[in-house]
Amino acid sequence: MKKNNLLMNYMNKKTKVAIIGYGKRGKTHLRNYSKINDVEVVAICDVNKNIIFGRDIKYYQDFKIMIDSEKIDAISICTPTNEHYPIALYCLKKGIHVLCEKPITLTIKQAQELSQISQKSKLILQVGYHLKFDGLINKLKSIIDYNELGKILMIRARQAHDWGGLKPFGWLLDKSKSGGGTIIDNASHYLNLFEYLLGNIEEIHAFSNNLSFKKDVEDNAIITMKFKTGILGEIETSWQDSSGRNNQLLICGSKATAEYKETNIERILEVKKYTQDKDEWNRLIRENIYLPKGIEQLSKKINIDNSKGLLFESTENMLNYFIGSIRKQTAIIPNNFTRTQQLISSVYESIAKKKVIKIKQI
Ligand SMILES: NC(=O)c1ccc[n+]([C@@H]2O[C@H](COP(=O)([O-])OP(=O)(O)OC[C@H]3O[C@@H](n4cnc5c(N)ncnc54)[C@H](O)[C@@H]3O)[C@@H](O)[C@H]2O)c1
Question: d(Cα 47, Cα 73) in Å, to the nearest integer?
Answer without folding.
Answer: 21
